Structure prediction request, 318 residues.
Amino acid sequence: MSATDQSRPPQPPQQRQPAGAGPGADIEEKAPSRLVPVWRFTVAVLRMPSGLFGVLVMLGFVVLALACPLFIHPSDLSVTQATGPLLASPRHGYLLGTDPAGRSVLTLVLWGSRTSLAIGVMATALTMVLGATIGLLAGHFQGHVGRLLMHVTDWFIALPSLPLAIALAAVLGQGAASITIAIGVTSWTGTARLVRAQTLAVEARPFIERARALGATDTQLITRQVLPNVMPLILVSSTLTVASAILSEATLTFLGLGDPTSVSWGSLLNNAFMQGAVTAGAWWYLVPPGIAILVIVLGFTLVGRAVEHVLNARVQPR
Prediction:
């Protein structure tokens, strides 16, 4: 040993600080996130033929719905101001024919996409909020609160959704708001059960126990640890729920529970049946709204399946 080493005072042994316990560190440990970067996620979805087709269908309908006011005048939707032939088959100037009031069916279908998509997206947002909230709370609080929430969920599952939605829409009155609430209140149960199962799986992982040991509160555990890991499942569920919400909107509107003054795909089908399009053989009045519903539901379903393949590492995209 050299003289320099002997004259140097002994240094106290350095203690290793635990992860997350450094200066200024938060009390909870950061959860490993399963969220995929947006650009990588988008590229992965678009590489799948089904996902690409679904995205193109969704974008096409959204662009048409947003651009409708640019080339459709309110007089084109008015029953009293229509100037076309009555219930005429497709011809020059009327690619999809006309309805019994002389309005262009193509114009009505394009404008109806605005109402149907808006109600579908708003009902899906309400469904996701209710289902995710109840699922997170039921999975995190596994005592009396969790059991009570699951009993309520099972009670809603036992009730037939369509009659319950019809009853709610009839009680709330005709209109887009009542249909949105009816769809959201009757469609959240599946999301709640999925989110609860994923919450239980996430809270069984070691980083949750470490976060609890560091003093993280229930709110911090749910919002910063559990929710980022449950969000991919919510994203997949939302894309699939939009399709079912559009179908439910068309069903309720077809049954006469929608706003009679607004144009939607369900109201077009309702008017076609009520005004004798079936007996008159006016297929151009019945088929276009039905095809529009079929295509948009197929688009959202394909996107949802593609998102599910991308986010689930155990499933290989085909």
User: Anything to note?
Assistant: The mean pLDDT is 82.
